[in-house]
Specification:
Layout lengths: L25 E6 L4 E7 L4 E6 L6 E6 L3 E7 L2 E7 L3 E6 L4 E6 L2 E8 L1 H11 L11 E4 L1 H15 L5 H20 L14 H12 L1 H4 L3 H7 L4 H12 L3 H19 L4 H7 L5 H12 L3 H8 L1
Helix pairs in contact: 2-3, 6-7, 9-10
């Protein structure tokens, strides 16, 4: 049984999740359409405390990115838990929470508001999901994979990050509802988008630089849920919306590389990439070589 640690650090300035600002080595945050994503990392061996009073903020998911131990308290009684990489916990914000974190720790955290559960229940229709089962220290390979996919966007956000994290957020939320919320898995194969909906979705994606469109916004235009829209869009195009948009920009960049003498930085700007580094990274992912190497092979 864990002993109750002194409350000395609680008076220090803490962030919205109860983490001591002094202890944090890295603190990153990114806001999606439905969820808030955080990465919190502490190095060293000191004990860091997390304290949050009960509130109506919804639920919190934590995904461990490195080995970690913590003691979680109810009253003055505490229990110790071990977290391997990929181990998760869920927290209901309606309950007081206090934990002593045995540093170092490195977590991806996802805050899910109650409004999202209400909207998800409306989409499910057959079953109301009010929250998630309490889980502590359980390994979840699906959430581990999604966490590793999210960390680069948190470290280096760019204008396309919202579209990307919306897609991962839908996948994460669907998995949580089915595995920890009791929601049924879809049983029918998803049909492709109609031609009208596909054209509308693609037009909104191509125009996103003007308004930073989100997955929920496009899904509403197609009169479907975000999760159904993502499945239907991939059935129609073979890509997620973010992947499809990147392919369109790369194809436009190839035209500039082939027919103009513009520099890579100028092409990156013309094709709505964040900067030349972002352009080179995406181009390499899609084509398999850097823009400069691809252009040289044309000569």
């Amino acid at each position: 049984m864990a002993a109750l640690a002194p409350l000395s650090t609680i008076a220090e300035r803490s962030d919205s999740l109860g983490c001591s600002a002094r202890s944090l080595k890295h603190s990153q945050e990114l806001q999606g359409s439905d969820f808030s994503f955080y990465r919190k990392r502490v190095e060293g061996e000191e004990i860091a405390q997390v304290v949050t009073p009960a509130s109506d903020r919804g639920f919190l998911l934590g995904i461990s990115l490195a080995p970690h131990r913590r003691s979680i308290f109810r009253g003055r009684q505490g229990a110790k838990f071990e977290f391997a990489p990929g181990a998760i916990y869920t927290r209901d914000f309606s309950e007081d929470y206090r934990a002593d974190l045995q540093a170092p720790f490195d977590f991806l955290l996802v805050e899910m508001p109650l409004s999202w559960f209400a909207a998800a229940s409306d989409e499910l229709r057959r079953r109301r999901v009010a929250g998630l089962a309490t889980v502590t220290g359980q390994h979840d390979p699906v959430l581990q994979h999604l966490a590793y996919a999210l960390t680069p966007a948190l470290a280096n956000p760019d204008p396309d990050s919202r579209l990307f994290i919306d897609q991962l957020g839908v996948a994460l939320g669907t998995h949580l509802l089915q595995r920890y919320g009791g929601a049924p898995a879809p049983t029918l194969r998803t049909a492709p988008l109609s031609r009208l909906h596909e054209e509308r979705a693609k037009m909104m994606l191509l125009e996103k630089v003007k308004g930073n469109v989100s997955i929920p916004e496009i899904a509403r235009e197609c009169n479907m849920s975000a999760s159904y829209f993502l499945r239907a869009f991939k059935a129609s195009t073979g890509h997620t919306p973010h992947q499809w948009l990147m392919v369109q920009r790369v194809e436009m960049a190839q035209q500039y590389l082939r027919s103009t003498q513009l520099t890579l930085a100028e092409i990156a700007l013309a094709c709505d990439f964040y900067d030349q580094s972002h352009f080179s990274r995406v181009f390499s992912q899609v084509v398999g070589s850097t823009p400069g190497a691809w252009r040289r092979r044309l000569r």
